[in-house]
Amino acid sequence: MTLNDQTITIEKIYKLESEQQKAHYKSLVEIADDNVLQVIIDSLNFISNTAMNVDSKQLVVSLTDHIIFAYKRLKQNQVISNPFVMETMQLYSDAYHIAKQVIDQLNAALDVHFPEDEIGFIALHIASNTEDLSMHEMTLINNVIKKGIDIIESDLVTTVDKESLQYQRFIRHVQFLIRRLRRKEYIHAQDDFVSMIKNHYPICYNTAYKILTMIQKQFDVNISESEIIYLTLHIHHFEERINQS
């Protein structure tokens, strides 16, 4: 492909199927500099050559759109903060690792310095093309996890270590909990076990109840008391860590 007498190297051909995608991509190409388009194409080739099963056709438009406007904002000193970088890194570690390499390539090729926030954004674009969740759903999950951690920190009067094993287990539990609830897959606990956990860990149970009430409203799903019990156990791990310190 040649634009403005400069050659752009293409290793693969990405076929856009819908007319809407084609029109949107054409409008993006018309406003972008050739060197920016080249590095975007290089990034798409890099991502599609990784071990992750990425839907390249879906990613072409979304990633091109994101990088073009992220670059324009950066040149204008307008940086958008990403409050979910840590959650994204923990939940989608493979996509995050690839996104970091993409950002490194963008920084080198365009002689800029994208902040870590952009790694998180690009990781979500990559993950949304490999997971059974949309970008919107992944953002909702990240938001729920962040609010859940805020509730835990408030109720237990502590600061959660985002590098800890307890944190990683908690966010994984919430992620798979939401997936199960969306598929209407429910877990069950025996009544005596439910009573024991409620009596032994009342603060953690109350915290779990608050978090799951939030999830119930956010995703419009039904939540059983068994779910509260299992989340209570995860929250209790945070409480144990506090008592040990």
Automatic annotation (TrEMBL):
Record Pfam families: PRD (PF00874)
Keyword Transmembrane assigned: no
The molecular function GO annotations come to: RNA binding
Q: Which Gene3D superfamilies match?
A: 1.20.58.1950, 1.20.890.100, PRD domain
> Is Repeat included in the keywords of this UniProt record?
yes
A Gene Ontology BP annotation from the UniProt entry: positive regulation of DNA-templated transcription
Could you tell me the keywords of this UniProt record?
Repeat
User: PRD domain: from which residue to which, for each copy?
Assistant: 31-135, 136-245
Name the PANTHER family on file: CRYPTIC BETA-GLUCOSIDE BGL OPERON ANTITERMINATOR (PTHR30185), PROTEIN GLCT (PTHR30185:SF16)
Q: What is the protein's name according to its record?
A: BglG family transcription antiterminator
Q: What species was this sequence derived from?
A: Staphylococcus aureus
